[in-house]
Amino acid sequence: MGKGGDQGGDSGEPAAQIRFYTWEEIQKHNLRTDKWLVIERKVYNVTKWVYRHPGGQRVISHCAGEDATDAFQAFHINPTLVQKFLKPLLIGELAPGEPSQDRDKNSQLVEDFRTLRKTAEDMNLFRASPLFFSLYLGHIIAMEVLAWLMVSYFGTGWIATLILACILTTSQAQAGWLQHDFGHLSVFKKSSWNHILHKFVIGHMKGASANWWNHRHFQHHAKPNIFHKDPDVNMLHIFVLGDTQPVEYGKKKLKYLPYNHQHEYFFLTRVLLPFLIPCSHTLLIPLWSWLDPPRVPHPTVFPADCGGNSVQAPSLKSSWKTYHNRPIIPKIFDETLKCKKKKAKLQNQIMFLESHWFVWVTQMNHIPMEIDSEKHRDWLSSQVAATCNIEQSFFNDWFTGHLNFQIEHHLFPTMPRHNFWKVKPLVKSLCAKYGVQYEEKPLGKALVDIVGSLKKSGDLWLDAYLHK
Question: Where is the Cytochrome b5 heme-binding domain (predicted)?
Fold first, then answer.
C-alpha cells in the first residue's frame, strides 16, 4: 500500500499510477494550502482547483480531509458531467482495508441514505413541474402589475400607499423564494438556464448579487449551523448562539453586547436590517442591472407621476447614462415620480416589512436547533441536527416558499420544492430507523422558539460570565 505525497492533482495531470491512502493520511490534508477530499472512495487533490470551483472555494474547502460523496451528489444536478473536471485531480484511492466513511461514521446509515436518494430519483422527484414554476412567477408578476395600476389610477394617498406597500412586500418576498429555487438549480435540467434565471430574479427583481448569494448560501448548506463554516451563524459578536459558544464567551469575559438581553434587542436588529439589505421593487429596471447587480438599493419605479399621469419610459441609452452619473438615485426616477420623499418612504416601508418576513422565516428552522463546532457527522445526521420542519398547509407552503420542509430541502437541495412532501415520509422513516430526531412544529411555535433559544443562550453566557 502506497502512502505519502503523490501530488498528481497539483500539476493538473493524473497520477502515473494509482496509489492507496488511509484516512489518517487524508485527514492531514485539510489546510489552506493543502486540500484533499474523497468522492466514492477516490482521492482528489483539490488544492488549486478550489479557486476555480464555480460554487466558490470555501464550500469545497469545508470538505477537505473528509468523504465528500454526499455533498457532491447533493449540489450537482448532473454529477456524471462534473466528474470530467475531477479526472485531472485524481491522485489515488482509499486503501482496500479502509472503510468508505471517515471518522467511524455509521456506514449502514450512509448507505441507506444513498439508497433513499436513488429511490427519490427513480420516483422522478428531482424533475421540476414547468406549470408550478410558471404559475409561481406569474403570481409575482401579477402583483407587480397590480401595484403599477394602483399608482396610475389611485395616486399616492395614504390608504393606497399602505395597500401598495403590502402588495410589493409580498411580491418581493415571493421573488426571494423563487430566486432560491433557481440558485439551487432545482427548476431546469441544465445548470446554465438555472443560473441565467437566478441572475435575472435576484439581480433584476431583487437588486442583489447572485455571486454573493451563492458564496454564502452553499456554505450554509454544506455545513449548517457549524461555527467558522456556516456564515449564517457568524453574527459578528451581536449574538451568542447554541449552548457552547455562550459559555465560551462567558468564561473569557467577552462582552461585546449584553447578550443576556439579546432576545430583546433581536427585535431592534429587525428594524435596522432593511438598511443593510439591497432590494429593488420593480420588474422594469433596465436589463443591464441584473448583469452587474448594484450594491445599493434601487428606488421603486412606476409608469406614472405622483398625480397618476402617464410618463414615457426612457431609452436604455439614457438610463445607462443617468445611472452612472448618479448611481444611488438616478435622475430618471426624479423625473418619473417628482416626489422623492414619498418614494423613499414607500421603499423603506417595503424593505422593513420584507426584512421581517425574510428573517423570521429563514431563522425559525435553524436558530432553535443545534449550533456548534464541527463534529464530522454523516450528511443525514448533520443536516437534520441543524434543521427542523414546520407543519404543512397551503398557507405555510406559500408563506415560507416551502422552507417549512427545511429538512428535506437540506438533504436534497436540488429537488424542486413541490416534491418535498413526497419524499418526507421516506426521510422520516429513515430517521426513525436510526434514532435521528426529526423535529416538526407549528408555525407559531417555531417563531416563538427563535426568541426562546436566544434567551437561553444569553442566560448561559451570563451565568458563565459571572460565575465561571
Answer: 18-95
